[in-house]
């Protein structure tokens, strides 16, 4: 894999996801990482029955076709799929990360239910579309869509596996094609776990070629390079390796830029980098301040939160908010102001809000619900800015425990912690805890500002006037830019 290909992938694909135009195609390699068989392994018993060697049969769809002809029906092949693909295997990390990425459209030729189970494990809505008829159904609001082009193990009467199925795909499953072609035109597609020996992938590539004979849109493909341990002899390895190199070059005809790995086990690390870069565009503004307090102090906190929210909007980032007292509304106001000034709201994509239900007078908040909301906010964000965090107790300001809890949750989920100590309250307490701590403050693993930056963020005079606040906001975003580049 060239460094240029890797850099393009780590730069362009996260941007596509954040812009709402990133899609994913999941190939057989992902299922194999979970313990499911390859195509050749899936049909090995059938090959023995037919007295052929599946390893030497390059057209595995033909092997399934021969079995159907010999047995007089597809029952034997379907039973093999049911017994080999039906059992629930542990969900691999690659699929877990996919379920967390802000991707709305996922394509696959796999029959298993790994993706469905991964989404269900985090209570994220997903609409599987395993039959062309499913395309006509109303989509669940907010759900991602999983297009199972070749069917699903839970609907074995409608899977694509034989030569007849491929040849009649356009007449039986044709409604998938214009949608797939539209996504290839308008989105950046990431192909994971594809192999040039997989007849499913050859079929998909032919569809791309059919749609774009010249200058196709660019996409990315994470592919596994052949390894010496895969082959019995040096000659076999050399031949397959030469074939692989030619194939990866040929992928450019389909607009696919190959990002090579030596083993499928390397894919999660790549996707974690994608996830981290996506999250770096999502900024959680955590904090609160008693509205009844009034005075210049409250006005300064409000102005600071509003300025930070506005800068989040102006720099193309996403706002994550729990709509906390004063700080939440002020940051949201600034953020919306920036979006309006830019000529468009784009709220569905760039505003991630989980408002905390406020109890009636004399009633207590639902602590369990609030904790769940805080965890959801932390999972959505890559950076957490802490502003203020105070409450009134017996006519005196005290630290708000809720903001301290948000700090602990953000810390446990690996969010970059950025307290503005000059704003006082919990933000000052958090600054004191981070100052001199062993948490990394530089490089790819940074989760806090440097001690020098924490000290600069804590200068109380910065809140006294507009110029000071401007400097404070600039410092906050200089830190954000630094850690984003490091990621």
UniProtKB/TrEMBL annotation:
It comes from the Bacteria. It holds the Pfam family STALD. Residues 266-482 form the NAD(+) hydrolase ThsA Sir2/TIR-associating SLOG domain. InterPro entries: DHS-like_NAD/FAD-binding_dom, ThsA_STALD. The lineage of its organism: Bacteria, Pseudomonadati, Pseudomonadota, Gammaproteobacteria, Pseudomonadales. SUPFAM superfamilies: DHS-like NAD/FAD-binding domain. This is SIR2-like domain-containing protein.
